[in-house]
Amino acid sequence: MPQNSSPVLHPSEPAAGAAPESHSSAVPAHEQVPEHRVKAMLTRYGIDVPAGATFSCAGEAAEAVSGLHGPLVLKAFGPGLLHKSDVGAVVLGLAADDVPAAAAKMEISLAGKDLVPTGYLVEQQHRGGLELIVGVVRDSTFGHVVLLGLGGIATEMLDLSALRVAPLTREDAEALVDGFPGAPLLEGARGRMPADRGALVDFLLAIAGEQGMIHDLGDRLEEFECNPIVVTSSGVQALDARLILNSTTHAEADPAPATDFSRLFAPRAIAVAGASTSRSTFGNRFLAAYRAAEWNEHLYALHPQATEVDGVPAFPSIEAMPSAVDYVVVAVPANAAPKVVADAASAGVGFVHVVTGGFAEMGEAGAALQNELARGADGTKTRILGPNCLGVFAPGGRQTFTLGSPIESGFVSVVSQSGGLSGDMITVGSRRGIRFSKLVSIGNAIDVTHGELVDWLVDDPETRVIGIYLEGTRDGSSLLHALRRAKGTKPVVVLRGGSSAQGSVAVSSHTGSMASSTKVWSAIAESTGAVQVGSLEDFLSCLSYFQQYIDHQRAADADGVLVIGLGGGASVLATDACDRAGLRLTPLRGDLRRELRERGYGAGTSVANPLEVPVGPASPPSILVDALTPVFAPEGQSFQDLLIHFNAAAYYNYGTAGIQPMIDSLHTVIEAEFPVRVAVVIRNADVCPPSDIELVNNFSRESGVAVYRGFDEAASAVAAAQCFDARRIPEA
Asked: Burial, 410: exposed, middle or buried (Cβ in 10 Å; 0-12, 13-18, 19+)?
């Protein structure tokens, strides 16, 4: 019989009559919910859908369309009809009298393709408007992501779309509407009325807001797509709707209580397993590093026979040690590691750090061994760091994993998946003047994860700047939660490696095919303010700039970047780098340009921005300050950042005092205390002898001014700071 209304599919109901689909043997069975049921559900969330009715066969069509007026759209639904247009299961522009014949013809055509519809949906055709796509797909790392883009036939051909990660706040939804590539079309063009922007925002919130459809369906929602929705001056209507549910999703276990990581970074006693009395091992290196960090007591070696290893007291078990151990370093072979972990857990150790590799990264056998390792701490409060990682560096807690590591503590903290890069961060970062509060590498992260560590650092009073290196994470939702909590309070810099291995699991929808991991991360950056960088150099550059200027308060009228330095091609390159980073070189006001020309600047050079001055070995030390003083005078112009660039080669080609005149010029800038952040680029620093390089490094460390070897590094750091400026929450 014809059905002019359908029961609403509640989030807890099965998709009755839905056809199960299996994309592959490796994924759960999926249920494709019939379109009319999806639209019935949408109406519960206040979403407008076309008037329509369903019928089972062509003989019922006439009665079904009796209450509708044309033009009408006819669609078939059922197994195999996921993409209706591709198989001829959609006909537009029908009069009511045409529907029975069109349904009969469609039935015959589909039968020739071995497709048997479950039924048909006939709807009143919309008169037209701006066609958009709104979709939701499950990302393998971060869960549900929401896509907004141009709809209809333009969807994948042009891919003018943008993403946000659910749930959306109203701010997120408004930013998505204003920022997706098709946004200008909402303003109207060629006589078309402007679209109802507010209705589109409300539509997105009904789907993906904190109390929207995604929230109610939870993990059952695998894919959702409306392509198209039509946006007009009077509202939004969903013309097409697809929903795929995961029919085998199980309820998640309650989250474990949050861990206090204080003793991870400042243990009261440490034990090292795997140090040898006859040869040098990783265990011996850790003992040496801890002794160098002044662990003269409460440092023990775990050894079955020895009473002393490398001058450190040794014991056969943790229980035999004279004080309670907070942190155990496991540097034994992989097959012996599970027992050490289990023994430490039974002894009540807070944190066990497994240095050893040879687990899941080595294949199936290694994965089985890794599972055994994890089981060793099951049912206990012991947390496992690693395996396959170098562990923790925290100068304030005398935590270290390398000889010669810095002893001065700062407020920059990093969570890194890589142990090797962690060492680089400490060594290279310290030469750039970065002072770390905490740095932890987590390796395979079978227990302690990025998300919970970053979340803890958001509340850590000793951490003011957070860095993250990751290749993938199994707790994307926790990490996203932490990034959202950090927004506007602590700057976060993210360096990703191996990002091509991530991405959306779903590929059956337009949304899934367009929701690449790169776009997902861009969405996360947009909504949380986390800064993404592409290299270790940029990562350290951003951390150092944040460290120097974490307390810098942007003036209300400050705008853009002022570039100053030697003119010519260098200024062009500086401008290009700023443009790549999304920075604005705000032009100097006309009155300031006139004043600078009157002071002798501008003959054959620019005084607009970049401001070109003949800084070099023969120039007076005050040359930069002389040019900048009228700019930053009380009646001058306010900038967010000042980028000063030098050519190191000029100081050797045309001077005899080496790099010292350049440093003297920089000191005058510091002493002037201009109300602006300062980034310094020294090009061609490779020509400097080691003694002059050390002069530059000393200047950077002592002054705190960030010095970079290239424009792109500096521009990345400045852009990161301006990104945080835009989101900074004023302190109460």
From this structure: buried
Pairing of strands 327-330, 351-354: parallel
Q: How far apart are CA 542 and CA 469, in angstroms?
A: 13
| Cα–Cα distance for residue pair 686/360, rounded to 1 Å | 42
Give the integer Cα–Cα distance in Å for 704 and 57: 77
Distance of alpha carbon 365 from alpha carbon 46, whole angstroms:
53
Direct distance between the N- and C-terminal alpha carbons of the chain, in angstroms, rounded to an integer = 65
- For strands 308-309 and 465-470, give the pairing: unpaired
Of 525, 490, 531, 518, the closest CA to residue 728 belongs to: 490
Instruction: Look up the pTM and report it.
Output: 0.87
Distance CA 719, CA 579 (A): 10
Bridge partners, 121 (sequence order)? 54, 75
Strands of 412-416's sheet in order across: 392-393, 436-441, 412-416, 465-470, 492-496, 531-533
C-alpha distances out from residue 403 to 292, 398, 400, Å: 7, 12, 8
pLDDT (tens digit per residue) in 514-560? 456 778 888 899 889 999 998 999 999 999 999 999 999 888 899 99
Classify 133 as helix, strand or coil: strand
Element (H, E) at 72: strand 72-77
Distance CA 285, CA 288 (A): 5
Region class of 35: left (phi > 0), else alpha (psi between -120 and 50), else beta: alpha
Q: List the structure tokens of 71.
A: 């033009």
What element of type H or E holds 99?
Answer: helix 99-111
For 556, other C-beta atoms within 10 Å of its C-beta total: 7
Q: In degrees rounded to 5, what are phi and psi of residue 400?
A: -155, 165
Task: Give the residues across from 75 on adjacent strands.
Answer: 90, 121
The DSSP element (H or E) to which 246 belongs, if any, is: strand 242-246
Contact 41, 213 (CB under 8 A): yes
Cα(554)–Cα(88) distance, integer angstroms: 59
Count Cβ neighbours within 10 Å for each residue of 602-611 and write b for 16 or more, e otherwise.
beebbbbbbb
Residue 447 token pair:
């227990």
In Å, how far from its chain's centre is CA 135? 20
255 cis-preceded (ω within 30 degrees of 0): no
pLDDT tens by residue, 237-285:
999 999 999 877 555 666 778 999 999 999 999 999 999 999 999 999 9
Q: Decide the pairing of beta strands 242-246 and 312-315.
A: unpaired
User: CA dihedral in degrees (195, 201, 206, 208; nearest 10)?
Assistant: 130
CA 27 vs CA 146, 506, 509, 701: distances in Å: 21, 10, 16, 53
Name the pairing type of β-strands 561-565 and 641-647.
parallel
Strands (E), 347-405: 351-354, 383-385, 392-393
Paired sense of beta strands 531-533 and 492-496, if any: parallel
| 38 CB-side CA count, 13 A | 23
Residues facing residue 706 across a β-bridge: 679
Q: How far, in Å, CA of 63 to CA of 57, rounded? A: 11
Three-state secondary structure along 491-507?
Answer: CEEEEECCHHHCCECCC
Q: How remote is the C-alpha of 71 from its chain's centroid? A: 46
Quote the CA–CA distance of 557 and 539 in Å, as a whole number.
29
Q: Which of 245, 250, 247 is nearest to 506 (CA)?
A: 245
pLDDT tens for each residue of 597-651: 998 887 667 788 999 999 999 999 999 999 999 999 999 999 999 999 999 999 9
Backbone phi, psi, residue 157, to 5°: -65, -40
- 274-310 b/e with 16+ CB inside 10 Å = b? bbbeeeebbbbbbbbbbeebebeebbbbbbeebeebb
